[in-house]
Design goal:
Elements lengths: L3 E4 L3 H8 L11 E4 L4 E5 L7 E6 L17 E3 L7 H9 L1 E6 L1 E7 L6 E8 L5 E11 L5 E11 L10 E3 L1 E2 L13 H5 L10 E5 L19
Parallel strand pairs: 4-10, 5-10
Antiparallel strand pairs: 1-2, 1-7, 3-4, 3-6, 6-9, 7-8, 8-13, 9-10, 9-12, 10-11
Amino acid sequence: MCGRFTLSYKANELQLSLGITDIPEDWEPRYNIAPTQAIPAVINPVTKKMEFLYWGLVPSWAKDVSIGSKMINARSETVLEKPSFKNAFLRRRCLILADGFYEWKRSAKSKISTPYYFQLEDREIFALAGIYEIWHSPEGSELWSGSIITCPANELVAPIHDRMPIMLDKENMWAYLDNKPITEIKAMLAPFDATQMIAHEVSPKVNSGRVDSPDLVEAV
């Protein structure tokens, strides 16, 4: 599962690092992006425009948006089988921009879970493999929503959690949006190289989705 992540880059840093040319004016670095909040995504690899998606996929056939809170993740193993995700993976893939994510380690002796922060060893920006949908309300309004694809954890994440998000580095992320055989895209849904990642324990303050400050990613 991936239930929280960060993107601490400022607008000018996104432009320099990825060539993002169109960034919402109200963008601010985020240190605790949570489900049902706006997530930063790129849908078009040509324009490289950063969009905001509602985190929690709402299929076009849904009666209302409430289903989205249950669909923040799609499993790589079944993304081409589940009706809720298949068409989106085939036709509506997106890059969800990030520079780290959180996972929680459950204690065998208590109900307390300990949060850990994961990032690339060089602390560079990367993308999470995503899918998106466009939902229309009965009143005619439009909602663009997204989900993060997950896979079995690599050697670094596994001691903390059994799942992790699909991570795509700067050199490979744009290929995920290519119009190529879906078998080639599916092959990209693999655990990221653990030797290129680092992790550390962080404060339980991150447990609250209402808290969003730089100190959340600091080691404790």
